[in-house]
Amino acid sequence: MENAKLADIIILSLAVALFIIGVHQLFVFSEARGLQDGIMASYWIFMVVAALLMWMKFRKDKIKNIVKNIDKPISLKQNLSTKAHNTSNKSVDSKQKNKK
Predict the structure, then answer these.
(1) What is the DSSP string of 26-84?
(2) CA 4, 10, 14 angle in degrees (round to 5)?
(3) Maximum Cα interatomic distance, the chain, rounded to a whole number of Å
């Protein structure tokens, strides 16, 4: 868990740093060439920031699902009885269809 938190902190820090660099590039290029060229020059940086934030969100959701599923105990007996019940229902259904 601590490694996951460290990775999230690194991803977030990188996203913030790139956002600041993107804003700086936007201002620098806007002064020199105009607003449209400034936006075009720094657009890729903002897309990397968006990708990093989405990746961080995906990682958090994945970890939440893993932790959520760990808390649910699954007994082998329950799984086997559920599978046996499902297969017996299928065989009964197929026999009833064959009779009709």
Answers:
(1) HHHHHHHH-HHHHHHHHHHHHHHHHHHHHHHHHHHHHHHHHHHHHSS---HHHHHHHHH
(2) 145
(3) 83
Chain segment 12-52, per-residue pLDDT in tens: 999 999 999 999 999 999 998 898 988 999 999 999 999 99
Q: Which residues, other chains included, contact 21 with Cβ-Cβ below 8 Å and sequence gap of 6+? A: 45
Place of tokens 């977030």: 12
The structure's pTM equals 0.63
What's residue 15's pLDDT?
A: 97
What's the length of the chain?
100
Angle among Cα 73, 77, 80 to the nearest 5 degrees reads: 110
Beta carbons of 56 and 8 less than 8 angstroms apart? yes
